[in-house]
Amino acid sequence: MSFIRSDEAVVHEIHGTRFVSYVRPGTGSRDLAAWRGEVPAGTVAPAHVISEEETFYVLSGRLRLTIDGETAELDPGDAAVAPAGSEVAVANTTDRPAHMWVTTRAGLTARLADGSTIAPPWAH
């Protein structure tokens, strides 16, 4: 069993979003990865196809989440599930930052529109 303290979280930044990684194999998880996504106002992240199912839970602010072409505006307390193989896009079209909690299987990869694949360190 592992306990991860807030000061042990690892921060990564990509595509204008900050990923604060808590749960991953490096912190003792065998199967899952979980992080807090901090999405600044006006951020539109690129769409990407995910290799593993992802769950999203909005902690604060408002986020526009698109999963395989279906879009929803999510407020605090709202959640969404994106199946493995789906295309996901996240945007914060407001003038305030938003925060979400994301959980997936460890080892997630994402394929971008240009065909490149990233293996986010917060999920490995």
Task: Describe the protein in words.
This protein is mainly β. 0% of the residues lie in helices and 50% in strands. The protein is built from no helices and 12 strands. The chain has strands at 10-14, 17-23, 32-39, 48-50, 54-60, 63-67, 70-74, 79-82, 87-91, 98-105, 110-112, 117-118. The strands form 2 sheets. It has a 6-stranded antiparallel β-sheet with strand order 1-2-3-10-5-8, with no helix packed on it. The protein has a 6-stranded antiparallel β-sheet with strand order 7-6-9-4-11-12, with no helix packed on it. Strand 1 and strand 2 form a beta hairpin. It starts with 9 loop residues before the first strand and ends in a 6-residue tail after the last strand.
Spell out the blueprint of helices and strands.
Blueprint: E1 10-14, E2 17-23, E3 32-39, E4 48-50, E5 54-60, E6 63-67, E7 70-74, E8 79-82, E9 87-91, E10 98-105, E11 110-112, E12 117-118
Antiparallel strand pairs: 1-2, 2-3, 3-10, 4-9, 4-11, 5-8, 5-10, 6-7, 6-9, 11-12
